[in-house]
Amino acid sequence: xxxxxxxxxxxxxxxxxxxxxxxxxxxxxxxxxxxxxxxxxxxxxxxxxxxxxxxxxxxxxxxxxxxxxx
Length: 70
Description:
Blueprint: H1 11-16, H2 19-69
């Protein structure tokens, strides 16, 4: 298991860790997972917005290309 700063927790480290420190590590890990899940849930809206903007830019460039190239 790794916590938010990239520190890897081994089985031996976990077993020698005080109970309170383990609880805080679990809490921190759950909070980090919650933040990441929220980011993933918001992503589809962002992806749709970027796809829409890309479609507008691509459509405009295609129209100009047909006008100037044809």
